[in-house]
Amino acid sequence: MDALNPPGHKRRRTVVLLLLPLFVPATSFAGRPEKIVLARFVHGIEQQQAAFIVEMTYQALGIRIEWINMPPERALVESNAGRLDGEIGRTAAIEETLPNLQRVDVQLLDYAVSAVVRRADGPAPTNAQELARLPSLGVVRGIKLAERMTQGWPQVTTVSDHAVALRMLKAGRLRALLGSVKELRSMADADGWRDDDFSWHEIAKVQVHHYLHRKHEALVPAVRAELRRLKGSRATVLEGLLAAGLVVPVEAGPGQR
């Protein structure tokens, strides 16, 4: 299987192309780059949602995105150096150390960081103090909020991605993990899990924005305007996400189960 084309990729791209006539404004494409290069480092549901919206935005502006596969930490280095053109979606935490990345100041989505446990092990921790008392805790690499929260904790294991974290949690190698419930639930179905097998509690929620390297500073206003226009067409965007299979409902009450 092509790493950049997971199952359903062709169907999702077809949905994007079919929806584009609904979103293309009557604007001039003069002076804009023909393409930009972005890294797509996770094939989880939230990354796919962000990539879907970003791709719609740039195609509406007459710009093609070239996607490449790259680990999240390396992608940040390459983006800040200008070898990539930006980041699909990141939190404001990257701005502290990566001055060359300019935020497109329209929120893409909320990213909720939750503590997740096996239901058989009891209730999920509800705050950082409870997490700190656990004998073992997995943190998914690249989730800056979780990394900062647990910095220096001796019981923390950094896990490469949500799929590995889920397997470790299921096997009892972790008492809990910090990650995205949306990502874990989308993978749980493929791994033979039921929702009743684990519990979670939302620890924090952060806003995710698209970023461009400062060499594209002149492009930022057009991207910002198009993202705002898409946000105004939210119902149609959600229809597209549903048609592409990129919306996974979370049935539990706000922040916990």
What's the helix and strand layout?
Elements: H1 9-23, E1 35-39, H2 45-60, E2 64-68, H3 72-81, E3 86-90, E4 101-118, H4 128-132, E5 137-140, H5 144-149, E6 156-159, H6 162-170, E7 176-179, H7 181-190, E8 198-213, H8 220-232, H9 234-243
Parallel strand pairs: 1-2, 5-6, 5-7
Antiparallel strand pairs: 3-8, 4-7, 4-8
Helix pairs in contact: 1-2, 2-8
Instruction: Identify low-pLDDT runs.
Output: 1-28, 248-255
Q: CATH homologous superfamily of the largest domain, by name? A: Periplasmic binding protein-like II
Oligomer: single chain
- Please name the CATH topology of the largest domain: D-Maltodextrin-Binding Protein, domain 2
Task: Note down, in words, how this protein is organized.
The chain has 257 residues and is an alpha/beta fold. Strand 5, helix 5 and strand 6 form a beta-alpha-beta unit. It has a six-stranded mixed beta sheet with strand order 3-8-4-7-5-6, with helices on both faces. The chain folds into two domains: 137 residues, 3-Layer(aba) Sandwich (D-Maltodextrin-Binding Protein, domain 2); 95 residues, Periplasmic binding protein-like II (D-Maltodextrin-Binding Protein, domain 2), CATH 3.40.190. It is elongated and about 60 Å long.
